[in-house]
Design goal:
Helices cover 27% and strands 21% of the residues. The protein is α+β, with helices and mostly antiparallel strands. The protein folds into 2 domains: 100 residues, Beta-grasp domain (Ubiquitin-like (UB roll), Roll), CATH 3.10.20.30; 126 residues, Alpha-helical ferredoxin (Fumarate Reductase Iron-sulfur Protein, Chain B, domain 2), CATH 1.10.1060. It has a 5-stranded mixed sheet with strand order 2-1-5-3-4. A hairpin with a 2-residue loop joins strand 6 and strand 7. The longest helix is centred in the last third of the chain and has 15 residues.
Amino acid sequence: MSSFQIKISRFKPSIIDPPAFFSYELTPDADWTVLDALEQIRIHQEPSLMYRRACHHASCGTCACTINGVEGLACKTKLADLGTQAITLEALHCFQRIGDLVTVRSTLFQFMHPDWSCLQPDDKRDNHDFLLSGDGRAITKFENCIECGCCVSACPVARKNRHFLGPAVLSAINREKKKNPSTENDLLSLAAAPDGEPSCQRALVCSRVCPTGVYPAKHIAELRNQRKRTGNTA
């Protein structure tokens, strides 16, 4: 393959601050992913480059970032499929940025009740974004979602309103009410709050960028339709 220009938004508090773009050139193999490119840049050109990776097969969500303006998993996105040799990489939006492409995504859980069935116990402790219980010991995992944060980052409402429940939480609400019908009224009231489903602008980008087919927009539409049928408001 021909050489690629990889432009990365770099940030390190008090060092590269404010953020700035740095460009790196490399000649990848035909099957390289964006994560492969990041690994090569870190090993051979920029040892201080910060990004996250774990599973390397699109099941953990750790390597999520913005690739040419679209949220995606670096380990799943092949350079050859991007249709250009000029690649721009940025951190996800809406989350606290620690450095370069690294963000803290624990805020995905901030509006979720710890008793919801979508939050399941997990013994693995290698994911910094797992939710700690009040005693700091129990670790939980978000069912049917790899906690990548792509849907939240892509959402135009979440980018402007930090109080918006967001597509991940609204999807969890819809799944929870199906699993536990006795909680339906309370969950619909939560979803019907001003910063819940009514704030959704139906951009649909949350579903487009979801790497695991959760389709948050579909869940939000179901909440909207049921709320209108039942007349449930916050």
